[in-house]
Amino acid sequence: MPVIGVVRSGPKRGDPFVATFSRSMSGLGWEEGRTFQLVALFADRQDERIPVLVGEKAAPTLGVELVMFRVKNRGEITPALDAMAAARVGAVNVLASPLLNGARQVIIERLRQTRLPAIYQWAEAAEDGGFLAYGPRISLAFRHVAGLVDKIMRGARPADLPIEQPSRFELVVNLKTAKALGVAIPKALLLRADQVIQ
After folding, report:
1. Domain spans in the chain, listed from the N-terminal domain onward
2. Does the chain have fewer CB atoms within 10 Å around its N or its C terminus?
3. pTM
4. What are the residue ranges of helices labelled H in 6-87?
5. Is 125 helix (H, G, I), strand (E, B) or coil?
6. Domain spanning 16-197: which superfamily?
């Protein structure tokens, strides 16, 4: 069976938005005084460690400490989220994975209950009530996969089809969620947003 697909990769180091985004994120502030210096990295144990390693390398340059939380099935998700709140992290970075995306609503609701802001790697997550998202749209990724399948069904050789990476990343900020969480968002971040949900 040929393997085809679309690679979900993060923004490239040379992306001029990354530096501005990182500075803006460091300007986020809790109305209650809690800081964002301790950040939970939420990952699927089945995923490769590339995005985790990237996060670990970037953390010192942003002045934050990462606390790793990894789950292997849906039943471990809620206990992991509760453990983040108990650890008094200031924010959560939810990495992209089929497991975590499939439980997106569970994650968003639990983080709302524990009043923890999270950044997601699929743009749709912020539209569904997540605090903030920066990444491609999963709907477009599925569309690309469907296009590749269609080409194969029409006779194209899988070996001739390139593995595609997303070329457009969207920043979606949910101000309604931010207000409910008591988080102040810097103006610079709002000006950079592709979509701001009131």
Report:
1. 16-197
2. N
3. 0.73
4. 16-26, 50-62, 77-86
5. helix
6. Response regulator (3.40.50.2300)
